[in-house]
Design brief:
With 334 residues, the chain is an alpha/beta fold. It contains eleven helices and 16 strands. Helices cover 31% and strands 27% of the residues.
């Protein structure tokens, strides 16, 4: 079968499309015939070697984090799925493997594709959807009436985060370019700041929570718009001690490393009387099932910017790395 393989750490040429052995379904696993896979910044950050402190899988390895397809075989102990089921998943962070024609995935990481999604849309939901859901629900504890700021609302995570925050009953502000404003407003954003013209910290005040998807000045500016005691959760800043303890089960050395790396950011947050948390999502079939129900209830839709054939996955990555996609970028195997 064909797979997009991470051979070494480096630039675009560190990955190649080539023939690889077809996996088999082990105990508790599903063998999935992949129809489509989503591309994410974490994939090229892994390729570039920026994730080596956190995850160092043995190379070479088929890359890829999320997929949608059809169950081709089930391993011993599988009880919830059968051959022919349409499914989607965020794969195990250490195993990877979504950029291939077949992949074996643990049953607990898989959910049924909602009837309202095709394979490409389903492939674009797992990583971004789980990130947005777990940040808003578990880390920021968003409830009805909260005022929530989400930076970069037109991106893959942002488009889903806006909708989930509205489902939770929040008032949502976001940043977007003029090209993205129509999209984020269509998803429910109440206030849109054109980041090409002004900084949101000069416009917004007394927000209950912030989800940072951009990093840099956008992250530090978010501290200034929050109520005292509120918190920013980021997926684009620097990991802090809770990242090691809660997300990575890291030992003391990783906790200390992240404490040092994030010291300046945490000081800036404290000066504003707010908290800072960097979060890694965790794969969860149960959370994917919840997202699927929201799709079926017409409360959540997946925005796909562009789809490429699998043979052009290198071009898909080049496009994703330009940073201008509105929604998700995906590749289609079938």
């Amino acid at each position: 079968m064909r797979g997009y393989v991470l051979n070494r750490y480096g630039g675009a040429t560190a990955m190649e499309l080539r023939e690889v052995p077809k996996p088999v379904a082990g105990v508790g696993e599903l063998l999935i015939r992949v129809h489509a896979a989503g591309l994410n910044p974490v994939d090229y950050k892994m390729r570039d070697g920026k994730m080596r402190v956190i995850a160092r899988p043995e190379l070479p390895r088929v890359a890829g984090s999320e997929l949608a397809g059809v169950v081709e075989a089930v391993g011993p102990g599988v009880t919830r799925f059968s051959e022919g089921d349409r499914v989607f998943a965020r794969v195990d962070k250490m195993k990877l493997g979504a950029f291939a024609e077949h992949v074996a995935v643990r049953e607990e990481l898989v959910a049924a594709i909602p009837s309202g999604l095709d394979f490409v849309q389903a492939a674009g939901l797992p990583l971004a959807g789980l990130t947005a859901l777990q940040a808003l629900r578990d880390e920021l504890a968003v409830t009805a009436g909260d005022r929530v700021f989400i930076s970069g609302g037109a991106g893959g995570v942002g488009t889903l985060a806006i909708q989930l925050a509205k489902w939770m009953g929040a008032e949502v502000a976001t940043t977007a370019s003029p090209r993205g404003e129509t999209l984020v407003r269509s998803l429910g954003a109440d206030h849109v700041i054109d980041y090409t013209q002004e900084r949101f910290k000069h416009v917004l005040r007394d927000y209950d929570a912030a989800l940072d998807l951009v990093g840099g000045d956008s992250l530090t500016d978010s501290f200034a718009i929050l109520k005292r005691g509120a918190r920013t959760v980021s997926i684009a800043g620097l990991p802090e001690p809770d990242t090691a303890r809660k997300d990575l089960d890291g030992g003391p050395w990783l906790t200390v490393l992240f404490w040092l790396a994030s010291a300046r950011l945490r000081r800036q947050a404290r000066r504003h009387g707010v908290g800072y948390r960097y979060m890694f999502m965790h794969p969860s079939g149960a959370d994917l099932a919840l997202l699927g129900r929201l799709v079926d209830e017409n409360r959540l839709k997946v925005i796909i910017d562009r789809t490429f054939p699998f043979a052009q996955i290198a071009d898909a990555f080049a496009y994703l790395e330009q940073g201008r996609a509105k929604g998700k970028v995906a590749v289609r195997m079938v």
